[in-house]
Structure formats: structure tokens, C-alpha cells
Design goal:
Layout (H helix, E strand, L loop, with lengths): L2 E2 L5 E4 L1 E4 L2 E8 L18 H29 L2 H4 L1 H9 L2 H14 L3 H18 L3 H22 L14 E5 L4 H5 L6 E6 L7 H9 L3 E3 L4 H4 L5 E5 L4 E4 L3 H23 L14 E6 L5 H6 L5 E5 L13 H15 L3 E5 L26 H7 L1 H14 L4 E6 L5 H21 L8 E6 L2 H5 L1 H5 L4 E4 L1 H9 L17 H16 L3 E4 L10 H6 L4 E4 L4 H8 L4 H12 L4 H15 L1 H4 L4
Parallel strand pairs: 4-5, 5-6, 6-7, 10-11, 10-17, 11-12, 12-13, 13-14, 14-15, 15-16, 16-17
Antiparallel strand pairs: 1-2, 2-9, 3-7, 4-8, 8-9
Helix pairs in contact: 1-3, 1-6, 3-6, 4-5, 5-6, 12-14, 14-15, 22-23
Bound molecules: phosphoenolpyruvate and magnesium ion.
The site of phosphoenolpyruvate has 10 residues, from strand 11 and helix 18.
């Protein structure tokens, strides 16, 4: 339930997934369930705005009916088109319009609610009368009032989120990663959704795109209407309707503090990620498209630790051919060389669903035909990508990484195909890096348990905590109802990370973390204490993580990890980790929920 204060301010709480504060008009893109009309108490000052929305809906409905009339006249004849005159008359019914306006003004409810109550009364009265003519009138009225309601709810148009005419905050039941990737960045100030989670790819994209976002707000779509002014706090997961002057002032202060912090973070952009006691870490960035290299450089990352190539495959009818992929990978490698670029092979499936590639909706998409499993069946498609990556390796410091490896068979099969691709290129005289390094993502518990065998076959591991957590704890990373069980500091997760690091050490290879856990400042010391060599985070998070690393001692991180490995409680581990982060970087941890 939202908190309603005496001031009329209403606060909705959800999960913060992308930092930043924005203020603006709401655009609701989710349709309420059939028959569900949002109910909202309004302030006196909002009455004119609600009435204006009512009049806009009436004008729009008139235009729509006239358009239908024109089409019927052209197609069937003027005689039949005249039946719509009765519909137009309903729109001019002054008693109806007045009653709705009075209900809004006196009872202070949103116009949809007032309109529903008044028209229900009319319809009931008309339907009860035993007269064919009046019953017809009831049908006309139902038709027209339905249209008006649709216009009030914004259901009349399919909003094109790629091209919006004015700045707004998107409010939706959910947003898919493919829709999010195409959002009109200029005009989308932020977004708020009923469902969602921190590690969904939609949230990951919001962070990459620098769009403040709050998810898991449960029923926010039912409480907000188009045009309502809200404030969205992507730091703490809060949406405020009708913010008071005091709230606006407080948020102004928070925004100022954030600007100060950003200024501080900018000064260490070129500095290495090195602890106070001299341990140098690699701090890389996660990217989704070649355009992201600008942010990688601007935020001072040591190259790319995860290039999620599947985003090149979303939002299109045909998959990109080898040449197009080569150009994309080459562009990234050339822009960042000599820094490394780890290109992850296609991780399609799960929430990154591409219907036209032969994928079908599955009962358990995250446990289904996804990532390397898909690629090892669709060999031709996989080899095109491998050849494109190999060719790009001639232009920079490229490494290959396979996702969702569960054991050695998959790795051996993938490597065999890679060797075939190398042989083809060699035969054709095409240049590539013959020493190209191959690594695997450790994101399935079975991979941790056979990590020694995997380590013998690769040059590096990158732990995908987003999936490792969901598969180890049996918690769907997308499901907000069980989000409280999605616990990065669960003792089992920390032990799995430790086992992975130990196996890597035994075989002389390095280990990174590219899941969202690495972007969480409170968890950074813990990961470093567990012995990981690299962190790969959303470009916008690089400065914060670097700031923290540069203020901590590895000896403290190791102590924290030792404590964590002996502790049974994830909550206690999180408390300790947060305390350490607050001690070393209070500025960073301030204002965090
Ligand atoms: C992960 O699972 O942690 C990861 C980085 O991969 P993705 O989020 O793309 O599944
Ligand atoms: Mg993953």
C-alpha cells in the first residue's frame, strides 16, 4: 500500500534499480486489467487538470466517432453513418458532463473514477426501463462511454516509446529488455514498473542508459494516470505523487550532494583501481553495444569485462550476419585497444527472448534452451559469431567468453567449433589473433564443482553472480515476489565464489565477477577479500567502485571475507560488509536505503 500523508503526498516504495532523481509527467503504457479503473484521491489544486483531461478525452472521442462516420459513409452510405449521430449526442449531454465535473470537484477523485460512477448510474437506469428505444440508447451510451474511458486511460493509442513528443516518466506493468533498449533516451526521464528486479536485463540496461528507474512497485500502474506529476528517486526506490515543497527541497539537496560526489569521482577517472595497501585490481565495464565504448572510456574503466552480444540480435527481423557482427566487434576492439575486450558469445533466451530465431516460449526459460545450449545446436549461427570475433581479434585485445557452461562437454564442443573456425580463417588467409584467450562464465553451480576441470581448459573465469545466485538458491532473478530470497551474501554463494577462486589459483588463471554483485559498493570489499582479480560493472558504476577500492585496505577485505566464510547468516554478512563500506567511503554510502 502506498503511504498517504496528510499533506496529500503519496509515497510508493519499490526496488531501486538505476540511480538518479527525476521529476515529470507520467505516461502510463500498461493497460489496467479489463474493468479495472484506477482510483486516486486528488488535491483541490489538481481539479482543473483532471477536468482538462476530461475535456480532452471528449474532444478526442468526438474526432474518433466522426472519423468512423466518414469511413462508414464512404464504405456503406450516409444512411448507416447517421446512427453515429446518437453517439455524438451523448458527447454533448450537458447533464452528464456537469455531473462528472461536480463529482471530481466535490469528492476529489480522479476523473476516470468519477466518470465510471456517473455513467454506471445512467446505464443502470436506462437498462432497467422496458422500452426498446431506451434500451438502444443504453447500448449507444455504453459504446461512447467506453470510448471516452479508453481515451482517459490512454488505451486508444499504442505509444511508440522510441519517439516521444515530450519528456515523461514511463509507468508500466513491465518493460522487456528489447523495449528498454529502444527507449527514446532524450524524452524518457525515468521509469517505474509494477514488477521487475535488480538483476533483470531491463534494470541492467536502465543503469547503462543512465535512466533513473524503480521497479517492483506492485500496483503503481493502477494508481497513476497520464499527466500526473511525480518525483522518482532511483537511489532509494521511491515514487512520490504530489510531492510537497519540503520533499522537493530535500530532493534538491540530495541531487546537489550527488553532483558533488560526481565531481569528486571525476577526479579519479584516470587513476588505477588500487587499494591503500597497494593491491591493483582490474576494473572493467559491462557493455551491450559498440556505442557504449564512449562510456567505458569516459568512466575510466580498464577495458570491457563483458560484452553482452545478444543485444545486437534483439529488435530485428533478421539476425546480423558475420560481416555486421565483425564490424561491431572490431569497432569496440579498435576503440579500446590495448585494453582487453571480453566478448561473450550469444546468451539468447531467458528474459532476452528472440521469437524469430526459432525460440519458443518455454515453461522455464532460464532453465531452457538458452546461451551455449542454443549455440551448440545452432552451429552455423554460432560459427558465424565465432568467426566474426576471431576476425575482430586482429584489431585489438579481444578475448572470447562462453556463457552458461555447466560442464566440460559443452566447453569442449564450443572449443572444437572455435578451432574449426580458426582453421577456416587460416585457410582463407584471414588475419586473427592465434593466441586469443578463451574463458568461461561461472554461473551454474555445477561449473563451480567442476571448476578444476574447466580451469585446465581456459585462461580465465568470470563469475556471473546474477545467474549463479538464481540457480544456487532456486530464486528466479525476475520474480519480485521472492526478491527477498535473492541474497548475494548468502553463505552458500560466498562459498561458491571461494571455491571458484581456489580452483583458478590452482591452475594459474585469473577470476573476475561480471554479475551485478560487483557493482554494489557494499559487496566490493567482500569480493576482493574472497580473492577475485577483476570486477566488471556497468560503466556508470565504475567511478564509484574505483573510489571505494582506492579507500580500502586489502587486509580489511580479507578479514571481512574470513568472517563471512565462517558465518551462517547472510543478513549478518551484509551488515558487516555495509559497515566496512560506510567506514571507508561514507560519502558513497550516504543516502542509501
Ligand atoms: C550473470 O549472470 O551474472 C551475467 C553477468 O550474465 P547475464 O546477466 O547477462 O545473464
Ligand atoms: Mg548470466
Amino acid at each position: 500500500m502506498p503511504d498517504q500523508k496528510r499533506t496529500g503526498e503519496i509515497v510508493h516504495r519499490g526496488v531501486p534499480v538505476s540511480a538518479g532523481i527525476c521529476r515529470g509527467k507520467v505516461l502510463v503504457v500498461a493497460k489496467p486489467q479489463e474493468g479495472e479503473i484506477p482510483r486516486r484521491e486528488i488535491l483541490e489544486s489538481e481539479v482543473p487538470q483532471e477536468l482538462a483531461r476530461f475535456h480532452e478525452a471528449l474532444v478526442r472521442t468526438r474526432q474518433q466517432i466522426q472519423e468512423v462516420q466518414r469511413q462508414v459513409t464512404a464504405g456503406i452510405g450516409a444512411q448507416d453513418a447517421s446512427i453515429f449521430d446518437a453517439h455524438l449526442l451523448v458527447l454533448e449531454d450537458s447533464t452528464l458532463i456537469e455531473e462528472v465535473s461536480k463529482a471530481v470537484g466535490r469528492r476529489r477523485v480522479n476523473v476516470e473514477q468519477a466518470f465510471r460512477e456517473v455513467t454506471d448510474k445512467y446505464l443502470q437506469a436506462l437498462s432497467a426501463i422496458e422500452d426498446d428505444y431506451l434500451r438502444e440508447r443504453a447500448a449507444d451510451m455504453r459504446d461512447v462511454t467506453g470510448r471516452i474511458m479508453n481515451n482517459l486511460l490512454g488505451q486508444h493509442e499504442v505509444v511508440d516509446l522510441r519517439h516521444l513528443s515530450e519528456p515523461c516518466i514511463i509507468v508500466s506493468h513491465d518493460l522487456t529488455p528489447s523495449t528498454t533498449a529502444l527507449l527514446d533516451k532524450r524524452n524518457v526521464l525515468g521509469f517505474a514498473t509494477d514488477v521487475g528486479s535488480k538483476t533483470s536485463h531491463t534494470a541492467i540496461l536502465a543503469r547503462s542508459m543512465h535512466i533513473p528507474a524503480v521497479v517492483a512497485l506492485k500496483t503503481i500502474t493502477q494508481h497513476l494516470c497520464n499527466g500526473t506529476q511525480i518525483l522518482l528517486d532511483g537511489y532509494n526506490g521511491v515514487v512520490v505523487v504530489n510531492p510537497t515543497d519540503q520533499t522537493l527541497f530535500e530532493y534538491g539537496q540530495l541531487a546537489k550532494k550527488q553532483l558533488n560526489l560526481d565531481e569528486k569521482l571525476r577526479t579519479i577517472r584516470e587513476d588505477p583501481a588500487i587499494t591503500l595497501d597497494g593491491v591493483r585490481l582490474t576494473l572493467s565495464a559491462n557493455i551491450e553495444s559498440p556505442g557504449d565504448t564512449v562510456a567505458v572510456k569516459a568512466q575510466g574503466a580498464d577495458g570491457v569485462g563483458l560484452f553482452r552480444t545478444e543485444f545486437l540480435f534483439l529488435n530485428r527481423e533478421k539476425m546480423p550476419d558475420e560481416e555486421e557482427q565483425y564490424q561491431a566487434y572490431r569497432q569496440v576492439a579498435a576503440a579500446l585497444k590495448p585494453e582487453p575486450v571480453i566478448i561473450r558469445t550469444l546468451d539468447i533466451g531467458g528474459d532476452k527472448f528472440v521469437e524469430h530465431f526459432g525460440l519458443e516460449q518455454e515453461l522455464n526459460p532460464f532453465l531452457g534452451w538458452r546461451a551455449i545450449r542454443f549455440c551448440l545446436t545452432e552451429k552455423a549461427l554460432f560459427c558465424k559469431q565465432l568467426r566474426a570475433i576471431l576476425r575482430a581479434s586482429a584489431e585489438g585485445n579481444v578475448k572470447i567468453m562462453y556463457p552458461m557452461i555447466s560442464g566440460t562437454d559443452e566447453l569442449d564442443q564450443a572449443n572444437a567449433l572455435l578451432e574449426e573456425c580458426k582453421a577456416e580463417l587460416r585457410a582463407a588467409g584471414v588475419a586473427f589473433d592465434s593466441q586469443i584467450e578463451v574463458g568461461v562464465m561461472i554461473e551454474i553451480p555445477s561449473a563451480v564443482l567442476v571448476a578444476d576441470a574447466l580451469a585446465r581448459r581456459v585462461k580465465f573465469f568470470s563469475i556471473g553472480t546474477n545467474d549463479l545466485i538464481q540457480y544456487s538458491l532456486a530464486v528466479d532473478r525476475m520474480n519480485e515476489k521472492i526478491a527477498h530470497l535473492y541474497e548475494p551474501t548468502h553463505p552458500a554463494i560466498l562459498r561458491l565464489i571461494k571455491l571458484t577462486v581456489e580452483a583458478a589459483r590452482r591452475h594459474g588463471i585469473w577470476v573476475g565477477v561480471c554479475g551485478e554483485m560487483a557493482s554494489e559498493p557494499a559487496l566490493v570489499p567482500l569480493l576482493l577479500g574472497l580473492g577475485v582479480d577483476e570486477l566488471s560493472v556497468t560503466p556508470t558504476q565504475v567511478p564509484q567502485v574505483k573510489f571505494l577500492i582506492r579507500r580500502m585496505k586489502m587486509t580489511d577485505a580479507v578479514k571481512l571475507a574470513e568472517f563471512a566464510l565462517g558465518c551462517d547468516s547472510g543478513a549478518e554478512i551484509l551488515r558487516r560488509a555495509t559497515t566496512l563500506a560506510r567506514q571507508v567511503a561514507p560519502l558513497l554510502m550516504e543516502d542509501r536505503a
